[in-house]
Write a structure and sequence with these properties.
Number of domains: 2
Radius of gyration: 20 Å
Strand content: 15-25%
Structural class: alpha/beta
Low-confidence stretches: none
Bound molecules: S-adenosylmethionine
Number of helices: 7
CATH superfamily of the largest domain: Tetrapyrrole methylase, N-terminal domain
Strand order of the largest sheet: 3-2-4-1-5
Largest sheet: 5 strands, parallel
Number of strands: 10
Distance between the termini: 52 Å
Mean pLDDT: 94
CATH architecture of the largest domain: 3-Layer(aba) Sandwich
Order of helices and strands: EHEHEHEHEHEHEHEEE
CATH topology of the largest domain: Cobalt-precorrin-4 Transmethylase, domain 1
């Protein structure tokens, strides 16, 4: 691509949706098929969820770069990992080749693409291609609208402290709790103390062949996988 950056390649942050390879945009598909290099976040060992979603669409011979992210919360190594990834992708972009970064769900909805964007977008052309987020897919699976009419809607990260979760639950009509994982019991207690358990739906691994969706009241598990969320509609009833 020729622009103010000269003949540099473009960095694309491409949303690949929540799990079902059919929940891809045509643009995502086109970019993946023509990329010189595909990058994606991956755990220390094992496969990348983002890559698994689109594996059947990847062109033969494409060069791949796995951004290995250890399962820990400490900020320093994470910053260093993205510094290294940006350094590794820089010569590719400088040579004029495009890089497609696969992002689970939507790249800019709690997505790690922001870290590469922050490091590379001033030096190279960069485009974000939105994807179907877990939030939208969750509403489709539960068959409950995320919000309607003048209702308010909040996206709530489950790692927040109990008091903040209660406050947000009090303030909004509809909520989706993300990153439930090991915070399941805390979120469940907050919802129960507000007397709203019967309004909440628990979902995990949405849009994959291991998907589960059930009323929170019926969930007997004491822990949840990382890819889980809880949708709560305070006043939901079927529209007439
Ligand atoms: C770091 S955020 C990334 C969100 C993602 N960018 C999106 O657009 O959905 C990860 C959280 O999103 C939710 N999530 C993402 N994909 C999911 C899926 N397939 N099923 C259930 N929850 C999912 C979970 O709450 C998970 O802890």
């Amino acid at each position: 691509m020729t622009d103010q950056h000269g003949t540099h390649g473009t960095l694309y942050g491409v949303g690949v949706g929540p799990g079902d390879p059919e929940l891809l945009t045509l643009k995502a598909l086109r970019l993946m098929r023509s990329a010189a290099v595909i990058a994606y976040p991956a755990p220390d060992t094992g496969s990348s969820f983002a890559r698994d979603i689109v594996a059947s669409h990847l062109p033969e011979g494409v060069r791949e770069y796995a951004i290995r992210i250890p399962m820990q919360t400490d900020r320093f190594p994470i910053q260093a990992i993205y510094d290294d990834a940006a350094a590794a992708l820089t010569p590719v972009l400088e040579s004029g080749e495009d890089v497609v970064v696969l992002c689970e769900g939507d790249p800019f909805f709690y997505g790690s693409f922001m870290y590469l964007h922050a490091r590379l977008a001033t030096d190279f052309p960069c485009q974000v291609v939105p994807g179907v987020s877990s939030l939208m897919a969750g509403g489709a699976v539960s068959a409950r609208p995320l919000a309607s009419l003048s209702e308010t809607f909040a996206v709530v990260p489950a790692p927040l402290p109990t008091e903040r979760l209660s406050e947000l639950l009090d303030q909004h009509d509809n909520l989706v709790f993300l990153k439930v994982g090991r915070h399941l019991d805390k979120v469940r207690r907050v919802i129960a103390s507000a007397g709203l358990t019967d309004r909440a739906i628990y979902m995990e691994r949405i849009a994959t062949d291991r998907q589960r969706c059930l009323p929170l009241a019926e969930l007997t598990d004491t822990s949840a996988p990382y890819f889980s969320l809880i949708q709560l509609n305070k006043r939901w009833s079927k529209p007439v």
